[in-house]
Structure formats: structure tokens, C-alpha cells
Design goal:
With 313 residues, the protein is α/β, with parallel strands linked by helices. Helix content is 43%, strand content 15%. The strands form two sheets. It has an eight-stranded parallel β-sheet with strand order 1-9-8-6-5-4-3-2.
């Protein structure tokens, strides 16, 4: 299954486990990498020394490549970058910021850089900044999203027309069939988030995992666009947000309601009523909690079966 992405990262399969906050610790990242995918640590929910600890544990738990995802809105960003270089991390995914800020610095230290985008415009800016690949993420994805609400299967071919570097498709992909479809449209690999939230090794709370498994079509919604668009499972907190919108809210009222640590409260601590529960639309297709190894094996088996079925048409 060798292609530009497997060669770039030195991995067996063109599958990237997304570096998600409160879910992607060293146990998940190392398990995904050991399964032949690229595991990734989610640094967005880690203080600098916690990130160092997870990197060190991940290095001990796998001999295969793994990466770190860093949202560039993080207040201690320079400290995180120093730790990444000190610990010899070879692959970094940047998101939620200008790729020009850190790409050159990281590449000077021999690091492969990938930037997450939600539009053709930002894909071109990332390529201009010198990144090695981009993640093109559609608005089906869980967590923070682009404002244009472009779907993954619309975004991928549009980006493919405009850039020359490898493309990783993200948003709404949890099966081998979805992987094949994304690659037919021009992606070189897929990034998978929600399916890995419902994994044995994910650090997310079991209450949250079980809610993801029980989610149905229509149970998620993209909201809070005035702050930063985010896709959430509907719960009491979500209903409180909608109640503010119904009466005609202000940005200040939304900020006050959101408060601090809502995502940690929901996804990591398991408060299903008051927590912010970030997950993708594809949760309606996730029906079990599996080891990361099994998730990767299933995706590859489904991919091969779907490819064979299409060839018979």
C-alpha cells in the first residue's frame, strides 16, 4: 500500500490517527503506530511537561514513527516546540493558525510538517509556507471546524486541483469504504478521529466513548461560530447554547456560558450533561469500542474488499 504519504512518514498504511484533545495520549498514539498507521499525540490538551512525558512514553511503547498535533492558539506554544525538538519528534501537525509562523523553524530541525486546512485558500497558503503535506478537513469532522462548511468529498477534489503536495483527507471517515472514496477523489491518505475516540486506548472517558457508540444520525451539530466553530454531540450544554441563540445572544454571553475547561469536563472527566462533547458526524456509524489495532485492521480489510467490489462493476 505504498504511496507518497507512507513514504513521507515511513508507515505501512496511509492512515493517520488524529491528534485529538483529551483522547490522543501516548497509549493511543503508540497503539496506532504499532498497527501500521501513524499515531499522533494531541498536544492541545497538554501542558508542556505533560507533552514531554507522553512523547517519552510513546517512544518507549513503539519503534514506529508517530507525530504530535499542535493547535497554534496554544499560549505556551514556544515551550511545546522546544520540547518537540529536544525530544526528537520527527513529524508535527500544526493547526488553527498561520503555517508560516513555525514551518521553516521546524523543518530546519529536520521535522516533517503537515498543516490542517479547511479550504482551498488555506491549502495554497500552507503549500506556499513550505509544509510537506496538508490535511484537508471537511465540516463533518468533530471538534473545531472551518467556517465555510465545505464537506470533505467536495473539498478534496477542489484542493487536489490546486496543490502539488500530498493530501490527507479528514472529516467523516471511519471505514475502509470511506478511505477508498477519499483516495479516489485525490487524497493520498486519510486522517481518522472519531473512530479512534471509541478505542480501548483513547484517554477519553468511558462515558463519552459509550455515548459516541450510541450516537445516531443528527446527534451532532456545528455551533458557536461566533467563537470558533465546533461540532458537538447534543446534550444539556448544547441546549443551553441554543437557548441563548433563540433569545438573541451576544458573543460575550456565549463566552460566559462556555467558561473554562468545558471540553475536559465532558470528554476527559465524563460529564455528559455540562461538558463539551466534540465528535464527528460519522459517530452514527460507530457501534463499538475496539483496540486501535483492530480498528486499523478493519479499515484495511474494508478498503481491500471495497476496491475489489468496485473493480467488478
Amino acid at each position: 500500500m505504498e504511496n507518497k504519504i507512507t513514504q513521507l512518514f515511513g508507515i505501512k498504511y496511509p492512515i493517520i490517527q488524529a491528534g485529538m484533545i483529551w483522547a490522543s495520549g501516548w497509549e493511543l498514539a503508540s497503539a496506532a503506530s504499532n498497527a501500521g498507521a501513524l499515531g499522533a499525540l494531541g498536544a492541545g490538551s497538554m501542558y508542556p511537561e505533560i507533552l514531554r512525558e507522553h512523547i517519552q512514553k510513546c517512544k518507549k511503547a513503539t519503534k514506529n514513527p508517530f507525530g504530535v498535533n499542535i493547535p497554534m492558539l496554544y499560549p505556551d506554544l514556544d515551550k511545546l516546540m522546544d520540547i518537540i525538538i529536544e525530544e526528537g519528534v520527527k513529524i508535527v501537525f500544526t493547526s488553527a493558525g498561520n503555517p508560516k509562523t513555525w514551518t521553516s523553524y521546524l523543518k530546519e530541525h529536520g521535522i516533517t510538517v503537515v498543516h490542517v486546512v479547511s479550504s482551498v485558500k488555506f491549502a495554497l497558503k500552507a503549500q506556499e509556507a513550505g509544509v510537506d503535506a496538508i490535511v484537508a478537513e471537511g465540516f463533518e469532522a468533530g471538534g473545531h471546524n472551518g467556517r465555510d462548511e465545505t464537506t470533505t468529498f467536495t473539498l478534496i477534489p477542489m484542493v487536489k486541483e490546486k496543490i502539488t503536495i500530498p493530501i490527507i483527507a479528514a472529516g467523516g471517515i471511519a471505514t475502509g469504504q470511506g478511505m477508498l472514496a477519499a483516495m479516489v477523489l485525490g487524497a493520498d491518505a486519510v486522517q481518522v478521529g472519531s473512530r479512534f475516540v471509541a478505542s480501548v486506548e483513547a484517554s477519553s472517558h468511558i462515558n463519552f466513548k459509550e455515548l459516541v457508540v450510541n450516537a445516531q444520525e443528527g446527534d451532532t451539530h456545528l455551533t458557536l461560530k461566533e467563537l470558533a466553530p465546533v461540532r458537538l454531540l447534543k446534550n444539556k450544554f448544547y441546549n443551553d447554547v441554543q437557548a441563548l441563540y433563540a433569545k438573541g445572544t451576544t458573543k460575550e454571553e456565549l463566552v460566559k456560558l462556555l467558561g473554562r475547561a468545558r471540553a475536559k469536563r465532558g470528554m476527559f472527566e465524563g460529564d455528559l450533561e455540562e461538558g463539551e462533547l466534540e465528535i464527528g458526524q460519522i459517530s452514527g456509524l460507530i457501534n463499538d469500542i475496539l483496540p486501535a489495532q483492530k480498528i486499523v485492521e478493519n479499515m484495511i480489510a474494508e478498503f481491500e474488499a471495497a476496491k475489489k467490489a468496485v473493480s467488478l462493476l
